[in-house]
Amino acid sequence: MSVKIITDSASDLPREATKRYHIDVIPLLVYQNGEEFLDGVTLQSETMFQAMRAGKSFQTAQPSLGTFVETFTRYAENGESCIYLAFSSKLSGTFQTAVMARDQVKESHPQLDLDLLDTRCASVGFGMVVLKAAQWAQEGKSKEEILSLTRDYAAHMAHIFTVDNLEHLFRGGRLSRTAALVGDLLNVKPLLHIREGKLVPFDKIRGRKKAIRRIIEEMGKRGDDLKSQRIGICHGDDPEGADMLKSAIQEAYGCEDFFVHIIGCAIGAHAGPGTLSVFFRSRETN
């Protein structure tokens, strides 16, 4: 029996991919005006972004301890060997809750065969790591091989984001009110990346076209043989912007293999509509 891959919805994977590779996805929680939704289950990204454009705001929370306990107990009782790949512990408490749940389940089910890995990744970059692990599992690799390969792949996964509206970063506590107002007035597009699992701004560019050019430039500086690798792109309900970014990458580096998807609710609630991001393997660890 192959190793079972479990993850959470911050991986922003399309349903067809999780079905194909038999990936179990634990949804994060999303709230709007006191109403609770399950990311990707009872609330879809397109619906949330439409509401955000109309002025509504959303909050997010990690899955409950009970949800993890229930999931891990089921696999312990089935005698399955599992790996849980988690959203960056620097951006969410999801990994820590999974650790508590594993320890709790092991008390009653000592046979639990489960390893936990903090990927320190987010969104489609995280999703690409999960897909790789699931592919290695289907190929019949051992758990030890999958863990080693996945750690390396995750450590080299570069994330570069730009957002269309700074208001959502302010609401999420990642930007001051003054910076958000001034930035929007000046049409400033911040560029952010992930360093040691944290979302960190590294540049500010005026205008979307210039922001995309700067992303392309940064990819060239960091990328490890970009033409031969799969490039991830995700967007905040902005397929036109994603196509523009994809075309620019193709023209600059000759890339042919792309994984493009909309941002999920848990990430999108903080990034907002119009967000664009790119993910690729970098020469150096993040």
TrEMBL record:
InterPro entries: DegV (IPR003797), DegV_C (IPR043168), DegV_domain_contain (IPR050270). Coiled coil: none annotated. PROSITE patterns: DEGV (PS51482). One of its GO terms (molecular function) is lipid binding. Transmembrane segments: none annotated. Keywords: Lipid-binding. NCBIfam families: DegV. May bind long-chain fatty acids, such as palmitate, and may play a role in lipid transport or fatty acid metabolism. PANTHER family: DEGV DOMAIN-CONTAINING PROTEIN DR_1986-RELATED, DEGV DOMAIN-CONTAINING PROTEIN YITS. This is EDD domain protein, DegV family. It comes from Melghirimyces thermohalophilus.
